[in-house]
Amino acid sequence: MQIDGDGLYLVAGTALLLGAVLPRLLRRYAVSAPIAFLGAGMLLGLVVDRGKVDPITHPALTERLTELTVIVALMGVGLAIDRPIGWRAWRTTWRLLLVAMPACVLAVAGVGWAIGLAPATALLIGAVLAPTDPVLASDVQVQGPSTGPGAEPEEDDPVRFGLTSEAGLNDGLAFPLVYAAVFLATKGAIGEWALEWLAWELLGKTVIGVVIGAGAGWLLGRMAFSAPIESLRLADSREPILALAITLGVYGLTEVAHGYGFIAVFVAALTVRGAERGHEFHEDLHWFLEQLEHILTWGILLLLGIAVTGGILGPLTWQSVLIGLLLILVIRPLSAWVSLTGTAMNRSERWVTAAFGVRGVGSIYYLAYAGKDFAPDLGWLWATTAFVVLLSVVVHGVAVTPAMRLLDARREAE
């Protein structure tokens, strides 16, 4: 039996009902909600028209859906962070971004090249799998903004703060690496495009994203909290739709200006968060985005499960499995552990931070975005990326609850 047309409303309604029930049912078990949704998607793949949701056949739809999910998540995590941005206060973040992330890319690309991939393909799979995910990592992130008198900042937990701030920025910072792979595939030798890539793709677009994000966030924050015209002060009316307006507006403006919209959205969220930091309106904005993010995430996980049933893992090879296992179990933990040497984290906090580099929706987005330039290897790239996301969802989903409980117990004992 194939479900199509109106039957999809039944599927959507059932999925949303599961989304409301599963987190409560699974709270005491080593099964996360993302694992359950992937399983549900695999079952749905037996009855729906799988061809209409195949990411390889419909890359544009996949790109737009994952893009929307990522920017909503980036705005949400930016609003959740209480700690003002700064070099010393964010030292953990900069180390994860500037040491661990490039090390992961180089290591994965090196493994890919060693097992026979073309240099451009090896670099692309390293870049696609580089960002940790702000969407699927909610269990190890700060849970929301601390507002009101006497509120204790959630991000005083260095593990949650480090993973949240890392995920907020490295989605955007993966873009230059993806462009480097695309240039290597389409423009030839590095000497032909290295200067252009360094000046524009790495520096120029990043600066545009930061400037627009900071500027737009400052203006919108001032308008919402302290506009001279009372009707413009949306914080007084507690209108949470402002969160989505900022997300879409800042992202769209930055993309039109040819900057990195992911960076701009996160910077805008941090800037808005800094305006009237104790105001309870931040909780409304974060709650609204969190609900929207959940809906989008559930949909993507269901579609990924359907794609698995439809055969997206068909081109999977032992090389794909090797890359996935090494990244999740060896490369990310070791590179992050080394990058955090010398920080204020204790040994247990460093290991937990290093281990939970969740891969997810961001990787799917980048492959949908850049895959058209890698047509001969596209099936293998999708199979490898899907396998890594599945592996991350299962391994991290099963491990997160006991790991965080053990960490909390050790902190109390100390």
UniProtKB/TrEMBL annotation:
In the UniProt record, does the keyword Phosphoprotein occur?
A: no
List, for all copies, the residue spans of the domain called Cation/H+ exchanger transmembrane: 17-404
Q: Where are the transmembrane segments?
A: 6-22, 29-48, 68-85, 97-130, 173-190, 202-221, 241-274, 295-314, 320-339, 351-368, 380-401
Which InterPro entries does the record match to this protein?
Cation/H_exchanger_TM (IPR006153), Na+/solute_symporter_sf (IPR038770)
Keywords in alphabetical order = Antiport, Cell membrane, Ion transport, Membrane, Transmembrane, Transmembrane helix, Transport
Determine the domain of life of the protein's source.
Bacteria
Q: State the membrane topology.
A: Multi-pass membrane protein
Where in the cell? Cell membrane
Q: Which PANTHER family match?
A: CNH1P, NA(+)/H(+) ANTIPORTER 1
Name of protein = Cation:proton antiporter
- Native source species: Kribbella deserti
